Amino acid sequence: MASLPILGGIALLIGLIILALKFAQKSSSTSTTTSSSSTPPKKANKPLNRKVTLNPEADAKYILNTLTPKSTPLEILYAIATSPDNITVATKSLELRADVVQRKLVHLAEQAKKAEDAQANATLDELLNEDDDDAWASDDEDDEAAQLAKAAKEEKKKQAAALAKATGKDAQDVTKVMLEGVDDDVLGMQWVKKNLTALGVWPPPKYATKTNINMDAPTERNLIMTMGRLNARALNSHPELLQAGPTGKIDPTYFQSTMEYRQRVGQQLDNVLRFACTLRSFQLACAVLDAIVMFKIGCMDAHSETELKWFQNFMEEKYGKEGTPKLILEDTYLGVPTEEPSKDKEENKTEAEKKEEEKNKLVQLIAQSRQVTTTDDKMSLEMQITRQHAEAFTKEKLALCQRQGIPPQIGMQAYRESWFIIVRAYKLNEDGSRMSNWDGAMGGSNPNHFEVLKGNKHAIFDMLTEDTIASFEKEFVGSDVSDRKVIVGWPFVISNVAQKSGKVKIHLPPPDVPGKYEFSVTIKSQEFLCGVEEFKLVVDIAQGVKKKKDEGEEDKESKKDK
User: Fold this and answer.
1) DSSP for 292-330, written as a single string
2) pTM above 0.85, yes or no
3) DSSP letters along 496-523, please?
4) What are the tens digits of pLDDT across the range 464-510?
């Protein structure tokens, strides 16, 4: 029995020796770690200001002066991608991403350090009982007071975490952001660039011929987004992306930005379309409309037979053979504007009278209209448009709402279908051929619309440089100017997917010189890859009689002269 104290002392001595050895290992490990990590990750900076200051006027000026009448759809999209405001937004996005990356790296480094310290700072109990976790169990582990204290501590942690998240100081939010180049197998901008290169569309086609291909980071980002959108079908069906989506291996700092970028580009394309019509450039207006469709659908060429065939097959598979978007044009008319019947008169008519009137509408319209003259205030271009695809689209949209559990009146109210009408005019010779040297004078105004814009101090004209003005003025010099000159550009939007047909009316100025004229009407979609609808109308313009001015107007004119 006397040997028991001796054995106890020996056990204590052995425990102290083990503790000393472990402490020595810890000290050595800590020393090694410190020496090998002489440059620890920098502490994360304070969150960056997310606001950006944009200059829409300078942005528009850049885009307008980058374009020419012969700009292609790709060149239009390149101009928008490299505009000052888009570069500013891209620069801020890259700064914010760099901040997220830095904060996540710092957080990961801190977590690794904590784990290392936790292992190095093992307690005496853990060191002496590595093979028997329960040998030195605490006597008060099951004590009610200890359990209450533990529960209170956990609740305090939860409250602190909730407060941190509410105030934007939750480090866990950073760790949840999947970042390309930081986390394994995460897809982002570099993945898109790699696949664009494999598709043969990076660097961007024909971009390097006009601009130094060694682009800066914001320019590269915007151009990758542009080319990624135009090649969306190939990218979205890529096996790696299909696998990464469900597992959350998608970098939101890139893919979320693409949605914002698409919205901005769509707005800027609409602005460029207005610019093209203001400068009367038919070729540029058509190129912008092509760019709009290419960017919405996701294709590199709006006139490619391959792309057109794909789109037709896609629409037929989804909506049926009658689902291919097409406008059927009927009752086309160009002449003196006609008055619409009042509602009271319509209400007093019987159903039979209404049907008869609808049947003979065009005949009555022509019979009642007098000949257009050079002094008329305006002419009216009217047409009845029937949407061939209305019924098929409506059925599919209703089925989609049912599958998603959305009330149809809510699911369909966001529907938009845009089309654009462009009108050109030609003066005809006696034999019916087009006159090649007609100056295009209409509505009693100067046929040189640049002088009109300048005289009116139009906002767009003030933005243009001399080189840009010269390039567009050159478009309207020489023969066959009428082919290149827009008389009117007019958008119309369908907001009711079920609308089968409707009447469109556009006012035009009459020509200044009497004679026979041909008006060419072109209708292009802003949504679909589909054929262009075109028709022509010929109208005789008679010499008009100048209207006498009222005495009040004459007094005003005389005062101006004085």
Assistant:
1) HHHHHHT-S-TT-HHHHHHHHHHHHHHH-GGGS--EEEE
2) no
3) -TT--EEEEEEEEPPBSS-EEEEEEEEE
4) 999 999 999 999 998 899 999 999 999 999 999 999 999 999 999 99
